[in-house]
Request: fold
Amino acid sequence: MDRIEKIKQAATTVENLINEWAPLLNQLPAEVITLRRNKQNRNIKQILGHLIDSGANNHHRIVRLQYQKRLSFPDYQPDNDTWIQIQHYEEKDWQELILVWKYYSRHIAYIIRQVEEQNLNNLWTDGFIAPISLENIIIGFPKHFKLHLNEIEELINQ
Reply:
């Protein structure tokens, strides 16, 4: 599989996960989405909010690395819980949260499909870790997506 095929496969994986998970999320009762907590003390609403935040940060990287060879800006990872707290995902309407996650993630998958091969080696760094290529950011996106969907699945099955 060539590089562009791998990139398009990443987008397809995200789309497939959205198609699989959106109907499941819509059916969850309120007590499941708000009361059960994972090892990071996040409930399902907060995890889905984190996926939106992750998408927003990756959206920024993917777009900017289309026209910049090297990009440096802070990673929000140390502030994940702060982002969740400030945005009050626990209080957000569940159906609206699902729609934001669903359509924003689809938009990111669309953007991924538009990436041109000559941009795949462009690099992002936060100043602390080794630079990461656009290609690796994109390939890692569905993995991160699935990691958190697996956390949600664990909470559903508690």
